Amino acid sequence: MVTERKNIIFIVVDGLADRPVLSLRGLTPLEAASKPGMDRLAKIGICGILDIISPGVPPGSDVAHLSLFGYDPYAVYRGRGGLEALGAGINISSDDVAFRANFATVREDMTVIDRRAGRTFPEGDKLAEALNGYRSKNFPDIEVIVRHTTEHRCVVVLRGPGLSHMVSDTDPHGESKVLESVPLDSSFEAKKSASVVNEFTRHSYEVLHNHPLNAEREKRGLRPANILLLRGAGRLPDMPSLKELYGLKAACIVANALVRGVCRAAGMDVIEVKGVTGGFDTDTNVMGYAALKLLDEYDLVFLHIKGTDSASHDGDIEKKIFMIEKADSLVSLLLDSIDLGHTYLVLTADHTTPVSVKEHTGDPVPVAIAGPGVRSDGVKRFSERDCAKGGLGRLQARFLMPILIDYLGLSKKYGA
Amino acid sequence: MVTERKNIIFIVVDGLADRPVLSLRGLTPLEAASKPGMDRLAKIGICGILDIISPGVPPGSDVAHLSLFGYDPYAVYRGRGGLEALGAGINISSDDVAFRANFATVREDMTVIDRRAGRTFPEGDKLAEALNGYRSKNFPDIEVIVRHTTEHRCVVVLRGPGLSHMVSDTDPHGESKVLESVPLDSSFEAKKSASVVNEFTRHSYEVLHNHPLNAEREKRGLRPANILLLRGAGRLPDMPSLKELYGLKAACIVANALVRGVCRAAGMDVIEVKGVTGGFDTDTNVMGYAALKLLDEYDLVFLHIKGTDSASHDGDIEKKIFMIEKADSLVSLLLDSIDLGHTYLVLTADHTTPVSVKEHTGDPVPVAIAGPGVRSDGVKRFSERDCAKGGLGRLQARFLMPILIDYLGLSKKYGA
Predict the structure, then answer these.
(1) Residues of B with CB below 8 A from A55's CB?
(2) Given CB atoms, is B373 within the 8 Å cutoff of chain A?
(3) Whose CA is closest to B364, among B158, B129, B21, B64?
(4) Facing residue for B413 by CB, picked from A26, A58, A258
(5) Predicted-assembly ipTM surpassing the 0.95 threshold
(6) How far does the CA of residue A40 sit from the closest CA of chain B (Å)?
(7) What is the C-alpha separation between B72 and B78, in angstroms, rounded?
(8) Which of A82, A259, B32, B335 could be bridged to B27 by S-S, CB 3.0 to 4.6 A?
């Protein structure tokens, strides 16, 4: 018998899980939506619920995906900045400390007038370039890399020896004074890093304040983008790739930069697919066809749909149901096309975002796995409550990946 | 939209859970009791079962409540004495080592004739006062505080630097010789503490043996209360309050001193309610009305009913069912009165105490949570076996509090 290598399509629908909603007669948006594909998946698969971190703890998207990819976030997570930078396509090393940054407008006394220099911001590349490569005066072994990403946003990376991500933001997250970055632990590395951050922040004002592009902006009646506000210091998580761990060749189709960063940190190839966006307009059909093609080459293809979470944060029930139904059509397309004799289809969420709360909560999320040899369990619908009765029971999310690896036949026996 | 702050009433029915009983045709006392309130709670709520510590480990009441309040007992618990002292209203610091103690009768050769000087013991306050404030001769930096509580019982506290609770009892728990306290680890602190305990025990005999109140007792044909027997060395658990952890303002109505001590250690305000006792005669109606009033001021109101456990220790099935039905009337009263749109009602037990075993066992206990946004699960009855099919699944008890905190919207996101 020829053993064909098995593979997996792994779908995460962001913020999919919810709580019962009064205006839906006590149903959750997932229960209220029309989702024949997901229900078919639940019917033929094994279902359960996952605690993304642990019961009652609301996860951020970065930590949630680390967990879903099999890592213990308490052991590997070192802040958001590094993952965000990686997701934006910036290659950083595990010693670099990265920040998310905004071009913003301040008065001379460092009071923030506007945290965003503008959604439309054609000057971004050139202003970032004017700051890029700055070398610290206090610590000449540290270089600062500045890369414009989208709109008013950029990534700032501190590079050099002896740095730490345990430093606070300069971004006041409101219209008050620019904050002084302070070390968040007593290490020399944290003190050094905070010092460089403060020095670079002053430098950014000096350079941007006097930059001719800002003089032009002011002539056009626009506010000058005269400072960079830094937040979310982070280093890359300290972890081996899925390839190193399991010999797994993995690809992802993900628009969201932060989740993309986690995928890259796990060693996935990022596949660009035209039409796949992080918005409500994303094309789940082209995503589906692209995923099917990738199965020829990869053991695991990870797909991420963001709109459900955005709708939840907006408290928009209709839009959430619309996005669930869009995600459902992806599930149907894949179920119609894959060979369930050697391809697994896995569906879950990265956290609960109730439309009533508009924030992530700590409730568990449903999961279903269909494919060869799974112990299907009589669950007939894919929902928060139906899956709670499934054969997987209630699990920590970081155990999902080992289960999938075992289905693929790539797990290692412990003991003799 | 005005976001009203949500709150919780959290009921623990002590030793409520049980095993199937032959004389109840294989039902548990909880299954056999008439309990429309509890069943209604299960129906509208989400249910599950809790391992108080871990499967098969029978918990003491102190450790059980630590766990139910969200603490890891293996990390924070440091013996019973400190909690008991706190529950008796004695303010002790985290460095003090406290003991439960009995006034007892010994012969001159230190053989115990009677471990209890008497249930009716009017001399308690004065004899305690005669010992209170003793300063160790071997370690003059150590002072001994003695406080009479109820009947023949008192609390003994060692106060001063360099003490440890890792010392054994002097109470032989039977009619043999008074024991020498020995250090239970190799630390200097344990040696010092055991030495003070032994020195104080001899001192208690010298003082009490010659005390005029004992001469009077003997004249009346009573045995002299001529020694203090110490047991259950403990320091306060090393833990932050619920306020410090979650910003939670909590109150409790609890008659039992030990459970009260855990409540105080968690930072709860202890509310005295006339008619609430630790016995079979406790008035659950006044408890209910008092709880409803406390909701105006507190985020969490904790209620404790003890009689079910006492009945179980006595092996008294009738009495246990009687107490379950009494607890049920409390649940009905609360369900009829609270606004389930912003108040959660939580019901569980601190451990299983089978009437057939008459001791705590390690079986899991049922739990139900009703309130806004809970994923009700189709469970129709509140019992050990029905709740095992609920949407919460099987959880460690220390995860219950994070789930409740998350429902209240007070949880902190991990990650970005």
Answers:
(1) 395, 399, 402-403
(2) yes
(3) B64
(4) A58
(5) no
(6) 21
(7) 12
(8) B32
Whichever domain contains A357, its CATH number is: 3.40.720.10
How many Cβ contacts (< 8 angstroms) between chains A and B? Answer: 90
Q: Are residues B41 and B144 in the same domain?
A: no
Q: How does DSSP classify residue A313?
A: H
**Statement to judge: residues B103 and B174 lie in one domain:** yes
At residue A103, what are phi and psi to the nearest 5 degrees? -75, 125
Q: How confident is the model at residue B1 (pLDDT cuts 50, 70, 90)?
A: very low
- Read off the tokens for B359: 């001791």
Contact A80 B415 (CB under 8 A): yes
Do both B14 and B153 map to the same domain? Answer: no
Total structural domains within chain B: 2
- Check CB contact of A372 with chain B, cutoff 8 Å: no
pTM of the model: 0.92
Give B-chain residues touching A165 at CB under 8 angstroms.
none
CB–CB contact B401 A357 (8 Å): no
Select the residue of A55, A62, A385 nearest B415 (Cβ to Cβ): A62
In A111-170, the residues whose Cβ lies within 8 Å of chain B are none
Answer yes or no: is B286 within a domain: yes
Annotate A206-272 with DSSP letters as a single string.
HHHHT-HHHHHHHHTTPPP--EEEEEEEE-------HHHHH---EEEE---HHHHHHHHHTTPEEPP
- Residue that terminates a domain, selected from A184, A205, A234: A234
Domain, as residue range, for B161: 85-234
* Co-location of B151 and B30 in the same domain: no
B156: β partners = B99, B146
Segment A106-162, tens digit of pLDDT: 999 999 999 888 778 899 999 999 999 999 999 999 999 999 988 888 999 999 999
E-strand stretches of B249-317: 250-253, 269-270, 300-305
